[in-house]
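Q: My hope is that you can spare some time for a protein that puzzles me. Underneath my words sits a plain record pairing an amino acid chain with its backbone structure tokens. Those tokens are not coordinates but codes from a learned vocabulary of shapes. Thank you; the sequence and its tokens follow:
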Amino acid sequence: MNLTHDEILALLPQKAPFRFLDKILEIDSEGIKASYEFRPEEYFYEGHFKGNPITPGVILLEACAQAGLVAYGLYLASHEMSQEELAKVLTVFTDANIEFMGIVRPGDQILIAAKKLFFRRMKLRVEVECTLSNGKSVLRGTLGGMAVKNL
């Protein structure tokens, strides 16, 4: 089954205010490209850092995992499962090896590109890069995750 971008987004278990994926720009058997705009009213900017807000690194990592592991994992699994089965699966983050190279401020849009390294037995590993809309890289590395039945 081929899911549309909107169907994949609807299947994501993350919802506001903890969903950091606005659009899927491209997706195929090799990878995904997605985007998110960090709105100035995001809840975490109030205290990170007062008067000089920046997006926490863990939130950037979460955005990359939502695109590269969850959304992309749903897409890959949709070739093996029905949409009803997919709704009963939860993708869990297992590991990361990443490097931060820049900062993201309120109002910035990020572009996330994840390339499949492997997908087997519902385990996925991707090479990921997060850039600002001007092309400046802010995060790069590898992420791993696996699907588990959501009881």
Remarks:
- DSSP finds three helices and six strands in the chain.
- The chain has a mean pLDDT of 95.
- The radius of gyration is 15 Å.
